[in-house]
Design goal:
Layout (H helix, E strand, L loop, with lengths): L2 H30 L1 H4 L15 H18 L3 H25 L13 H13 L18 H10 L8 H4 L6
Helix pairs in contact: 1-4, 3-4, 4-5, 5-6
């Protein structure tokens, strides 16, 4: 496999993982595995939450593909690195930027990163598994689209002001 082809596969898998993450977040985490994901929609006590198991679940295919790849199958290595790359981007956006599990003081006020934070805050504005919006992460909706998404939550159980205060400010 050529170096350019390798890089193309890595990038393709990073982009593909946004779709996989959206589907998993919408239909698995807010579906039959809500029992694990629910901890992420509640105030966290301690360093970890049950929802962190999803990071382990998503890491397994990456590790398997990287293992196969270092055995000599370059496309598997590129795919595994792409999945790992998405996981790293997700960690930096989700856990560092939005939820500040590691707080480096970054508080975006405008632009793309502010949209990422705003979209995820909107997701957490609903207190149940139903009625949530914005299940993806790398591709943040436009502000206009976010306003339409906000209107969709009107019938959902919105969080109380005290719970909302635990979410990062924009």
């Amino acid at each position: 496999m050529s170096p350019l082809g390798f890089i193309a596969v890595v990038i393709a898998f990073i982009l593909l993982m946004e779709g996989v993450a959206w589907l998993a977040h919408r239909y698995v985490m807010h579906g039959f595995l809500w029992s694990l994901h629910k901890s992420h929609h509640e105030p966290r006590e301690g360093t970890f939450e049950k929802n962190d198991w999803f990071a382990v679940f998503f890491a397994i295919p990456s590790m398997i593909l990287i293992y196969i790849g270092v055995q000599g199958f370059a496309p598997a290595l590129a795919a595994g690195i792409g999945i790992f790359g998405y996981g790293l981007i997700y960690f930096l956006f989700h856990d560092v930027l939005v939820h500040r599990r590691l707080d480096f003081g970054l508080r975006p006020k405008k632009g793309y990163l502010a949209r990422v934070v705003q979209a995820h805050r909107l997701h957490h504005a609903v207190e149940s598994k139903d009625g949530c919006v914005s299940f993806g992460f790398i591709f943040a909706p436009s502000p206009r689209h976010l306003k339409r998404m906000m209107k969709k939550t009107e019938g959902a159980r919105l969080r109380s002001a005290s719970v909302k205060s635990n979410l990062p400010e924009l």
